[in-house]
Amino acid sequence: MPDLTLDAQPYPYRFDPAHSALLVIDMQRDFIESGGFGESLGNDVSRLAAIVPTVRRVLDAARAAGLCVIHTREAHRPDLSDCPPAKRVRGDAALRIGDSGPMGRILVAGEAGNQIVPACAPLVDETVIDKPGKGAFYNTPLMALLAARRISHLLVVGVTTEVCVQSTLREANDRGFECLLIEDATESYFPAFKQATLDMIRAQGAIVGWTAHAEPVIAALAADVQPKPDHA
After folding, report:
1. Which of 30, 72, 145, 231 gives 20 to 30 Å between its CA and that of 138?
2. Along the 232 residues of the chain, how does pLDDT read in single tens digits?
């Protein structure tokens, strides 16, 4: 299968769908839905909710093109044995990891708020990785999974741009993956933080990776699954 090329910053991004994966970062109810943990901290979750249709469109395109699709959730064991004390006590929040929040215990695996929003729900054959840190590679099987599938390129969507998304991109870059962040399929509670992250990722000739809008990504994937001309 030939490489696909799409318009991106700082220059065109090339990838082979057979060796590429879509990584969907932390599209969880507690971060995105009204009444969840994010809103309880005073954040405007409508910013994150607004990208859900775009993430779904990218998901649909990736699935149609046969890409490997991997979802992540920031999640801890119920006994919090995988949550460092420094992470739990950080900040001055009324609710901390493990406390009972509007949708169950905060960032605890299996709780209602820890689930992925229905519009972006994983299919039965898609991998879901629960990660105890911000980055998706820390203390997870992600690297082994990608290596087993000979993945070299990652298309990345999800939330939040400057925290779990950026942490994952930097981890992936250090491990040799060529990464593309889809700009309108990622979001932050703080617009300036998102813009700064985009600028940092693509600075100095894609020092961490590339960025592009969803449309060229969807178009490239769709073109790849069009019926091939009959030359017989």
Report:
1. 30
2. 468 999 999 999 999 999 999 999 999 999 999 988 899 888 999 999 999 999 999 999 999 999 999 999 999 999 999 999 999 887 767 788 999 999 999 999 999 999 999 999 999 999 999 999 999 999 999 999 999 999 999 999 999 999 999 999 999 999 999 999 999 999 999 999 999 999 999 999 999 999 999 999 999 999 877 655 554 4
Please list, residue by residue across 126-151, b when 16 or more beta carbons sit within 10 angstroms of its beta carbon and e when fewer do: beebbbbbbbbbeebebeeebeeeeb
Where does the chain show beta strands of DSSP type E? 4-6, 13-15, 20-25, 68-74, 100-101, 104-105, 127-131, 153-159, 178-187, 210-212
In the DSSP assignment, the letter for residue 10 is: S
- The answer to whether residue 164 is catalytic is yes
Residue 83 a catalytic site member: no
Residue among 127, 82, 125, 128 nearest 107 (CA)? 82
Q: Indicate the Cα dihedral angle 95, 110, 160, 178, nearest 10°.
A: 150
Q: Which of 26, 83, 120, 194 is an active site residue?
A: 26
Catalytic: 26?
yes
What are the CA-CA distances from residue 9 to residues 2, 19, 161, 186 (Å)?
Answer: 21, 21, 17, 16
